[in-house]
Design brief:
Radius of gyration: 21 Å
Shape: globular
Order of helices and strands: HEEHHHHHHHHHEHEHH
Number of strands: 4
Helix content: 25-40%
CATH topology of the largest domain: Cytochrome Bc1 Complex, Chain D, domain 2
Oligomer: single chain
CATH superfamily of the largest domain: Cytochrome c-like domain
CATH class of the largest domain: Mainly Alpha
Number of helices: 13
Strand order of the largest sheet: 1-2
Largest sheet: 2 strands, antiparallel
Distance between the termini: 29 Å
CATH architecture of the largest domain: Orthogonal Bundle
Length: 337
């Protein structure tokens, strides 16, 4: 993470450079989409082939919360990504259709547009490409894509919405683009910490200020949890032993050095997005801080920065207080939320 002074400069300069912290979609001045982004954030990356429009975003939002996309029409994307939990779901491992349990924890989707690679193992390159995995995974929605498209094209309301957004019926292209467009609007950046770096000296309590100092220095969290998203977007082993059934990034790369490494998650809203780690093994942030304080488990490929910290009970409490200051109670998504 940048130092507080540098981050305050970034807040000011970013707002100047991106014209009031907004991003613009295609079309004339009267037609273009405006999705405001949190102060100090980079503009949301939007690919040329899937520029934002109100119609796409609205359609994607409806699809996201519609169980019609699952094989037995019992769960939706929103089942495992709840807005009130910063688009996570509050359980260690999510349940798919028929109560099937997956192998990983459902991560928060807040600010997902900024992620360079998707999933805990980085197995998807774009939000459009990412859609196929939960739709087809046996333990998640277990859907046949042809059946999903048939359902959508037999629904008069969806036929109208797809034609309005894409001037065509539902196809794999339009389905994935609509869902991706909606997910790019899920954003959050109004925490106590954000108010503090914007100049409100009273936004953080004394214990949270002490926690910030620990985060940046003695605890060394900044090594991996840096930048405005509080992640360097790398793949690391943080000291966790992992089962051979889930070798992490190595499942994608087939490289031994990637065994047991997983995407470094953003810490934004971390206080409300537990359980924690790729498999949800820690139920509380207190357990997480205690794990790092002891220096992990000397696991294979453990990151060199994971070492015993010797934090006192008070220091651990202060660090927890700072992490809680990263919560934004007003996660926004779509155009009207």
């Amino acid at each position: 993470m940048y130092s507080v002074t540098i981050m305050r400069c970034i807040v000011f300069l970013s707002c100047l450079l991106i014209a009031g912290c907004e991003i613009f979609g295609p079309g004339s001045d009267e037609e273009r989409v405006i999705v405001d982004v949190p102060s100090g954030f980079d503009p949301i990356p939007v690919p040329d082939h899937n520029q934002l429009s109100p119609e796409k975003i609205a359609l994607g939002e409806r699809l996201f919360f519609d169980p019609l996309l699952s094989r037995d029409q019992t769960i939706s994307c929103g089942t495992c990504h709840l807005p009130e939990l910063a688009f996570s779901d509050g359980v260690a491992k999510s349940r798919g259709i028929e109560g099937r349990i997956g192998i990983r924890n459902s991560p928060s989707l807040v600010n997902v547009a900024y992620q360079k690679l998707l999933f805990w193992d980085g197995g998807a390159f774009t939000l459009e490409n990412q859609v196929f995995a939960p739709l087809q995974d046996h333990n998640e929605m277990d859907a046949e894509l042809d059946n999903v498209l048939e359902r959508l094209n037999n629904d008069p309301a969806y036929v109208e919405e797809f034609n309005r957004a894409f001037e065509e019926e539902a196809t794999l292209r339009s389905l994935t683009q609509a869902l991706a467009a909606f997910q790019r609007t899920i954003r959050s950046g109004g925490s106590r910490f954000d108010r503090y770096i914007s100049g409100d000296e009273s936004a953080l309590r004394d214990d949270q200020l002490r926690g910030l100092e620990l985060f940046e220095n003695k605890a060394g969290c900044i090594t991996c949890h840096s930048g405005f998203l509080f992640t360097n977007q790398s793949f690391e082993n943080n000291g966790l032993f992992v089962a051979n059934a889930d070798s992490g990034r190595a499942r994608v790369t087939l490289q031994a050095e990637d065994y047991g490494t997983f995407r470094v998650p953003s810490l934004r809203n971390v206080a409300i997005t537990g359980p924690y780690m790729h498999d949800g093994r820690f139920l509380s942030l207190h357990e997480v801080v205690a794990f790092y304080n002891k220096g992990g488990n000397s696991a294979r490929n453990q990151h060199e920065a994971i070492v015993p910290l010797s934090l006192s009970e008070q220091e651990q409490a202060d660090l927890l207080a700072f992490l809680e200051a990263l919560t934004d109670a007003s996660v926004r998504y779509g155009l009207d939320n």
